[in-house]
Amino acid sequence: MGFSGPVEDRIALRNLLDSYADAVCRNDADAWAATWADDGRWELPGFGTFSGKTEIVETWKAAMTGFPGIVFQAWPGAMTIEGDKAIMRSYASEIYSRGDDVHHDLGEYADACMKIEGRWFFASRRFRALRRQEGVS
After folding, report:
1. How far apart (Å, rounded) are the C-alpha atoms in residues 60 and 53?
2. Tell me, what's the pLDDT at 53?
3. Residue 87 and residue 135: Cα distance in Å, rounded?
4. Could you tell me if 49 and 122 are in contact, meaning their C-beta atoms sit under 8 angstroms apart?
5. What is the per-residue pLDDT across 109-131, written as a single tens digit (0 to 9) for each?
6. In the prediction, which pLDDT does 136 show?
7. Confidence of residue 133 (pLDDT cuts 50, 70, 90)
8. 99: pLDDT confidence band, cut at 50, 70 and 90?
């Protein structure tokens, strides 16, 4: 897939991804919600598929209670932009504590994004776990 499309849209999509990651690190539900289209779809294998911003955000808020002090990093692996639609593959690294154990999870997202009134949003995100490591020091 590589990277294709206008540079300004690629930068805007990177900003979208960085805003998402920053909101996770700060546990800021409003900022995290602002990255989603109103009719977005979030697929988390083993946990379900969530549709619409309200359901997505409520699910995220509940899930975040289990990830205090998380450090979430994300970066794009590929982007294809055609007009007001984009497909992006991105990767994530999550480091968090549970009790005395530190966990490090790696994952991949298959993202569809859409530009609405000049701003990019996630239309769908499908997560795939790549690796989980417990007891990291």
Report:
1. 10
2. 98
3. 35
4. no
5. 999 999 999 999 999 999 999 98
6. 54
7. low
8. confident
pLDDT score for 100 = 84
Length of the chain, in residues: 137
C-alpha dist (Å) from residue 93 to 5, 77, 90: 26, 13, 10
Q: Which CATH number is correct for 3-134, 3.10.50.40, 3.20.20.70, 3.30.1660.10, 3.10.450.50?
A: 3.10.450.50
The structure tokens 């530190």 sit at 102
CA pair distance 21, 60, nearest whole angstrom = 13
Give the dihedral sign, CA 1/106/60/120. Answer: negative
8, 103, 104, 105 from 133: Cα distances, Å: 36, 6, 5, 6
